[in-house]
Amino acid sequence: MFDLRDLYQEVILDHNKRPRNFGQLARPDRSAEGYNPLCGDKLTLQIEFDGDVIRDVAFDGSGCAISKASASLMTESVKGKTLDEVRALFEKFQAMVTADAEVEPDADALGKLSVFAGVRAYPARVKCAVLAWHTLRSAVEGADDVATTE
Amino acid sequence: MSQVPAPTAAPPRFDVGCVRKEFPILAREVHGQPLVYLDNAATTQKPRAVIDALVRYYTEHNANIHRGVHYLSEAATQAHENARRTVQRFVNAREAREIVFTRNATEGINLVAQSVGQAHVGEGDEIVITGMEHHSNIVPWQMLCERTGARLKVVPITVEGELVSEEVERLIGPRTKLVAVVHLSNSLGTVNPVERIIELAHQHDAAVLVDGAQSAYHLPIDVQALDCDFYVATGHKLYGPTGIGLLYGKAERLDEMPPYQGGGDMISSVTFEKTTYNELPYKFEAGTPHIAGAIGLAAAIDYLTGVGLDQVAAHERDLLAYGTSALGQVPGLRLVGTAANKASILSFVMDGVHPHDIGTIVDQMGVAIRTGHHCTQPVMDRMGIPATARASLAMYSTRGDIDALVAAVGRAREVFA
After folding, report:
1. Complex ipTM, two decimals?
2. Which of A31, A108, A128, B105 is the most buried (most CB within 10 A)?
3. Sign of CA dihedral B79, B83, B89, B94
4. Where are the alpha helices (DSSP H) in B291-376?
5. pLDDT tens track for A77-97
6. Other C-beta atoms within 10 Å of B367: how many?
7. Whole-prediction pTM value?
8. Out of B18, B145, B228, B375, which one is annotated catalytic?
């Protein structure tokens, strides 16, 4: 049996239980909503910029453990980064969760985010892991539409 | 001396072990565990009789139907029309021409919404549905209302998942043109009092469509006793193939409705000046139908009725009671949908574990359930939850399946402890 702990790692369970940067910002420059119609995950993401650097970011909403932990860990890892750096990180994250099992995640670049490598063994859960990232992208791009994983 | 076998009055005793042997897929493993298939409300597994009927059709009889003068075409036409009569007997329709083959229940609803809508619904008219409809029994009516200026009225549901009966009485009235109601709710398991709704609607000359996608394989169906104007169901939940569904309509209703799609088979004659439409049911069956699907569906119905619908219903009732009690004892677990009259569905949520995570974890133990909104978002909104985990039963389900589910759900609790 595939070990469930590969998917539900301690870090993920911890961020699910105690999500970081959970709530709302006082003066957000941008915000966006994300929705995963598959499982009903909904989240709102708010960003405060300092030039093209993300000074602060927060999220709110409800979802499964994977989507909540992913949003929580994402907010931690993008804080203080430039938009170019965030874009590069998103690409690496997406590559990791959709890669073949034998491909080693780029742990140096992804840091803590590499705990989501286990998601690729669960194709139905990839959308949960990338929801927060899609929402971040639509907040950055200022799109009015709700970001979805469809 | 040869012995004449005595006529068997009662069907043989229901034996779930024998039934399971007829479903080859139930013998397989998933993630190294025996498959525990509890996603029957999404689709049921297929008995060997259905698989064999499909193979036999394609091996021995494949041809296009109607108008063929060669042997195979006639054989295929006969098998297709025999399938229609099997469906007719199954739902107890008065005539075979009252059975229209569709792709699925959704297409049956769309057919009625388009066709009845075009002919008989206008501004100020009202369509009544309920708060526990599947999206497929909401959206076609919304589209009809947008097109015609009719209004959509929704009967609210209680927290237990029952229709608010005073609202049924209040909302069905002189402006009502059509009532569309689910027989057995796919996300709550509620069995609705459709007889009463039909009676009430008919007092106001409104037609009633019963969505039987879930009821057709759990409850004996008699469209004449119900007196519904339309009844839709889908083959793949009835142990048959995907891509085949049925629409029953009273002949007098279907006769006065315009065609749904144009094409071959639905015409009597075509000239560029004027086309004459075919008689029932062909008027509603444009193009080459799913011939193999209809034959497979008939094989499924023969199998189901051979086992005995009453026996199946009794077996599932027993399991539902067992499952309700077993799941009820899991700490932090709450059943969603606790109507007095229920069948086959165990929807639930659990403290601290999102349904989607429950689904993934129990799957690793070989247990297939569905998680999400089950295409009933308004039900989720009403219950104040984003989603549920749903186990759903079929004739081959066992107490062992329920025990495996309870153990797997316990594992989900451990992971999130």
Report:
1. 0.89
2. A128
3. negative
4. 291-307, 309-328, 355-363
5. 999 999 999 999 999 999 999
6. 28
7. 0.93
8. B375
